[in-house]
Write a structure and sequence with these properties.
The complex is a heterodimer. Chain A is α+β, with helices and mostly antiparallel strands. Chain A is 55% helix and 18% strand. Chain A has 15 helices and 12 strands. In chain A, the strands form 2 sheets. Chain A has a 6-stranded mixed beta barrel with strand order 2-3-8-5-7-6. In chain B, α4 crosses α9. The chains are: A alpha+beta, B alpha+beta. Chain B: It is found in: Cell membrane.
Chain lengths: 410, 409
């Protein structure tokens, strides 16, 4: 058997090249199809990654801890004391790579010209830095120096709407735990630019210690944001944090915090598969056709082989093998082409021409295609499994030819 | 001539299965294209109309600087009078005046910064779908003064319910201190958290009093029955406000620049997919025609030897392709029309669409665009590319040497 199958393997390979033009056209088709599958899914993956990363940078962190009522009622009343004991211990050890405790309260900011409702963030810059939650770019001035910095940092878009600028004073007003309006005047020490203009308008940064003093809440914070690097792995380490935080605090992963982001991620995987299957279906007509032709021109030859005692199963095997070679070659070409075309693009494609449209979908102005081995693997599996299934029909017909009739066919 | 057509037709059916498979590929691809294109165009219409109906309307008259920075002082003078004259000039009812200001809203326990919108209670329901979404209490009425309708998330955050009072602190148009108290009469729950967090509407007259606006407002909003009437309406309104340089007429693309771009970027990624499908079908046709030429080398050799020119042979092959492509086109159009008809009756939905719909402000069912463009674009393009794919096999005929061809295996 092993000798026979080796012969069949060689036969299948040689048969493939008997009509090299047909094989090349088919290879071109499979290669293009596979390339398109991977290229499109890497674009999609890049877009989703971007959406999730942007979302996480705003949240921020993959896991957050709040007072149980905070999410429904984001008021300073629902603060919690700074982490200590077990929780602090859990936050300080791997896999947690960064964590930050912040004050996050709704506030009104007023310049001498105008005022706006914003979200006031009291941050400790040295803790936020590794979390990646600080503004991408400071366009004027500087960011806060430390948690005790008495200045505020505004988004460029907000500064324009408030008609204020670097060095001017603004008044921030929020509510203290006794429901009185707490306010203080602060100097604008920095102006930042964010990837999404809506974030620029929403978030105002101030020193954490300064806000705690203004609101009279001691060392209490609104939110603890925790990150461990890969957002897809969050389920592995979140339980340890939940246990350490105890029953009095609410610990949620980003999937709970932003259900839309999580559903986007699931939707993307489903979409990628559908896309690949659709492309393959169009491809499969050509594949079946090619194989059916290959069988048709070789009817007499197959009859002869059967007459000489070759079992039908070996003929089936031979034709499937021929199809498999074709698929594998096409896959190799397509994957290679995808790698060659996507790798140089991974540094980013400028799509600022449609920036505001992308912003509606939570994306920035640059698209970063992401070539993921899962997508390459998925396209390979889809093409081989469906390809062999599609080849079964012509191969089956060939294996069931009647030798006598086949031999007499002109 | 007739003989050549007949010959071409018969040649097609010498390999019936092969021809059907190739035609099948075309028809399948045609159906996919019809399906995707018609739904795509349909969803854009829906997206545009729904988004515009929610807040912005199809066109607005604003102060020239208001759009970019939304500053309090960039106002439209005599806004109600202007709105009335726009209504008269356009002959549509759905024209309303608005004003907006940021203020600190406080209930007994909580304070939040909100964007207050002053609206004309009787006219607002005609320009915006928002008033119809009030699901607790009622919308504003013509005789309301210090009444307010707010979003459900805002109500929860402020911990107020129907009948509760909200205090507003802000600054007026002249920079003076502005304060007012309003009673919650309605709560809107659209299910879109971003909207429910920010909506706060009060009667325009009260708004003008509190924020010392006089007869000023910030926008005249127009909702039109059809998208394609927008350009005409814009020029009409432009004529009305020509005597005031500070005012500008903005159409929906200027009001929501993201919308057009979202559609463009979506289109771009879809065109890529369509191009791939069409190229794959073209390859399939190329292969079939190449096979059918190669296997007839001897036959063509004989025909050449008998004095038939290679041009005529090439025409024969081209006719075969044309017949096959026409078959694909015809069947594609027929089944495509059936598909569009079915979708326009039944609608189309997919798992996870509801969340997307909530985010992008769309209905939870998509309906296709029923138009000749949506139906014919895909099949016609496939038809053209099929013909292009047959050029290479046909060109090979010109390189055929009769003697060598007749001896070919």
């Amino acid at each position: 058997m092993s000798g026979a199958s080796r012969v069949v393997a060689v036969l299948a390979w040689r048969n493939l090249w008997r009509n090299y033009r047909r094989t090349l056209v088919m290879l071109l088709a499979i290669g293009t199809g596979v390339w398109a599958m991977i290229f499109m899914s890497s674009l999609m993956r890049g877009m989703t990654d971007q959406m999730v990363l942007n979302g996480l940078a705003v949240l921020p962190g993959e896991v957050q801890i709040h007072h149980p009522s905070y999410r429904n009622d984001p008021s300073v009343v629902n603060s919690m004391s700074a982490p200590g004991g077990d929780l602090l211990a859990a936050l300080e050890k791997p896999p947690v790579t960064a964590w930050a405790a912040r004050v996050r309260v709704p506030a009104v900011i007023a310049s001498e010209r105008d005022n706006r409702g914003v979200t006031l963030l009291g941050v400790d810059p040295s803790a936020e830095q590794p979390l990646g939650s600080l503004p991408d770019e400071i366009v004027e001035g500087r960011f806060l120096a430390d948690a005790g910095d008495r200045g505020v940092v505004l988004g460029a878009s907000l500064a324009r709407k408030l008609d204020t600028q670097l060095g001017k004073r603004v008044v921030i007003m929020s509510q203290d735990p006794q429901n009185n309006v707490a306010d203080r005047g602060s100097r604008v020490v920095g102006i930042y630019r964010a990837r999404l203009a809506s974030n620029e308008e929403q978030f105002v940064y101030a020193g954490r210690d300064v806000l705690q003093e203004m609101l009279g809440i001691g060392d209490a914070v609104s939110e603890i944001a925790i990150s461990a690097g890969d957002y897809r792995q969050v389920a592995l380490w979140a339980p340890a944090i939940i246990a350490a935080a105890g029953p009095d605090l609410e610990v949620l992963t980003w999937m709970d915090l932003d259900a839309f982001l999580a559903s986007m991620l699931n939707l993307q995987d489903g979409f990628t598969l559908i896309l690949m299957v659709v492309v393959f279906l169009v491809l499969s007509f050509g594949l079946v056709n090619t194989l059916a032709m290959a069988v048709f021109e070789r009817v007499r030859e197959i009859g002869l082989m059967q007459a000489l005692g070759m079992r039908p199963s070996l003929i089936l095997y031979q034709l499937l093998l021929e199809s498999l070679y074709l698929l594998l070659l096409g896959l190799a070409a397509g994957n290679l082409l995808a790698w060659v075309t996507i790798k140089p693009l991974e540094s980013g494609i400028d799509i600022s021409g449609v920036a505001q449209g992308m912003e509606m979908m939570g994306m920035g102005t640059t698209l970063y295609p992401a070539l993921a081995y899962q997508d390459m693997l998925m396209s390979t599996v889809v093409v081989i499994v469906l390809g062999l299934l599609a080849s079964l029909l012509p191969a089956w017909r060939a294996a069931r030819l009647d030798p006598v009739r086949a031999l007499n066919k002109t | 001539m007739n003989v050549t057509w007949l010959l071409a037709w018969r040649n097609l059916w010498r390999h019936g299965r092969r021809t059907w498979l190739t035609v099948g590929a075309m028809v399948f691809c045609n159906l996919l294209l019809v399906f995707m294109i018609s739904l795509q165009l349909g969803s854009y219409q829906m997206m545009i109309n729904n988004s515009l109906a929610m807040v912005s309307g199809h066109l607005q008259v604003q102060h020239g600087d208001f759009m970019a920075d939304q500053r309090m002082r960039d106002t439209v003078p005599a806004v109600v009078a202007l709105s009335d004259s726009v209504r008269a000039a356009l002959g549509v009812d759905a024209v309303a005046a608005r004003g907006q200001a940021f203020a600190l809203a406080s209930s007994d326990d909580r304070s939040f910064g909100v964007l207050l919108t002053g609206v004309q209670p009787t006219l607002e329901p005609q320009v915006s779908s928002f008033p119809g979404l009030v699901n607790r209490g009622r919308y504003l009425r013509a005789d309301d003064r210090d009444a307010i309708v707010i979003g459900a998330v805002l109500a929860r955050n402020l911990q107020v319910d129907l009948g509760g009072e909200l205090t507003f602190l802000g600054s007026g148009r002249d920079g003076s201190f502005a304060a007012g108290i309003a009673t919650v009469v309605g709560i809107v729950d659209t299910g879109i958290a971003d909207l429910d967090r920010v909506v706060a509407q009060v009667p325009l007259t009260w708004f003008q009093d509190v924020f010392t606006m006089g007869d000023h407002g910030h926008a005249v909003v127009v909702r039109l029955p059809e998208l394609d009437t927008v350009p005409a309406a814009v020029s009409t309104v432009q004529g009305l406000v020509a005597d005031n340089d500070s005012l500008r007429v903005l159409d929906w693309e200027a009001l929501q620049p993201g919308l057009r771009q979202a559609i463009q970027s979506d289109m771009a990624s879809n065109w890529f997919m369509y191009a791939v499908l069409i190229v794959l079908v073209a390859f399939s046709v190329l292969n079939t025609q190449l096979m059918s030429v190669l296997e007839r080398t001897r036959e063509f050799g004989v025909m050449l030897a008998l004095g038939m020119g290679p041009g005529r042979l090439a025409r024969l092959v081209a006719m075969e392709t044309l017949l096959m492509a026409a078959l694909g086109l015809g069947l594609g159009l027929f089944f495509g029309a059936l598909l569009i008809w079915y979708l326009s009756v039944a609608g189309f939905t997919y798992p996870g669409m509801e969340e997307m719909a909530a985010r992008f402000n769309m209905g939870d069912r998509m309906y296709p665009e029923v138009s000749l463009l949506a139906l014919a674009w895909g099949p016609t393009t496939v038809f053209v590319f099929t013909l292009v794919a047959a050029i290479y096999p046909a060109l090979r005929l010109f390189r055929l040497e009769p003697v060598a061809a007749m001896r070919a295996a």
